What we know:
alpha/beta; 2 domains; six-stranded mixed β-sheet; elongated
Amino acid sequence: MNKIQIIINVLCYGLIVLVLGQYVIKDFETVRYNRPFFILKNINLSYDKKMEMKAGEIPYSFAMFIKNNTQQDSTILIPPQGYPWDKTSNVAYLRYFLYPRNLVNGDEKDSKVSLFYIDYVLIDYGETNVSQYGYTNFWPKFGVNGEYIIYWNPSNGSTKRVDNIKYIYNPNNVTWQWGLIKVKK
């Protein structure tokens, strides 16, 4: 090998190391909660607090609200997978917290499946303001006959139950953005 080939090889390998190094550093920054220092520094935190930090406060707290207000054998209709419901519409992600409940994705403006087979429908504002596929915040955008609705306030965890009500989406009157509708059979 002559000097020019050696220099070209060194430059190529150096460039590859720089490019890959940027991705490795970026990955370490995005998974900062996986670091051993985080665990040691926060050893006294409760499991729930650690999960809130890992999953996000609203998605984790909402999953616990759903878990505490549904039966284990229930079928729950959740938003279509996509933004603005990045975590609460992801069946695989949400199942981690809600197993053995059965989760089914609906469409944005209709249930996609017969509500006869559904026990609960989420009322879900979405965790982000980013949209995908033309979706907009707030779900469901269709009516649901409910035995009851349990509204949930993410800022303080309070709930409000309303019995024997038909849920009707009205974009001009959205007071409660999160909750569960128990489907009337």
